Amino acid sequence: MTSFSKIRFFLITLILIIALGSCKKKNDVIPDVYVNFTLDLNDPEFVSLNAIGSDTVNERTNNWGRGAAGFDGNGIIIYNGGVEFYAYDRTCPYDYVVNGLSIKVKIDFTIAKCPKCGTTYALSANGTPASGVGRYPLKNYKTSFSGRYVTVWNNY
Questions:
Q1: Which residue in 117, 35, 134, 135 sits closest to 76, CA to CA?
Q2: Could you give the 3-state DSSP secondary structure of residue 72?
Q3: Phi and psi (nearest 5°) for 15?
Q4: DSSP-assigned beta bridge partners for residue 153
């Protein structure tokens, strides 16, 4: 193999590696919507979030409006994982991708379950599917915790 052939082989290989490495599979299939609210853990409505567990919010919660509605008004799950807080959209990603449906998942402490497809999502594992046909995680929103306040937002 000549020196020119080795260089050509190296460059082609390098281009393929870069091209394949940049083709990341997008796991966030639920469309972006505006999300921005802050909840107070001393509010009687959210005292359950002072321990590991979950609660939900929607546009009617504390008159927050669309900033707490999530996709298609399905609401948002707030989960206290013990060390940090997580926030997920309540829309089932499987039913949205496969059937074009906006189905609201039901919450049971650390699990979210779709009433239509039966997929369960582990809230303690970034909303990833734990069982069922679903392959995409629940849409995640950013959170920060300061003292007694949990802020949830996205960059929409």
A1: 35
A2: helix
A3: -65, -40
A4: 36, 142
pLDDT tens digits, one per residue of 89-118: 999 999 999 999 999 999 998 999 999 999
Amino acid 19 reads: A
Q: Could you give the C-alpha distances from 79 to 50, 117, 137, 151, in angstroms and in order?
A: 10, 22, 15, 12
Where does 1-156 have alpha helices with state H?
3-21, 93-99
The predicted model scores a pTM of 0.82
CB 89 within 8 A of CB 71: yes
- For 156, the 3-state DSSP assignment is coil
Could you report the per-residue pLDDT of 138-147, keeping only the tens digit for each?
999 999 999 8
**Chain centre to alpha carbon of residue 113:** 14
C-alpha of 120 from chain center: 14
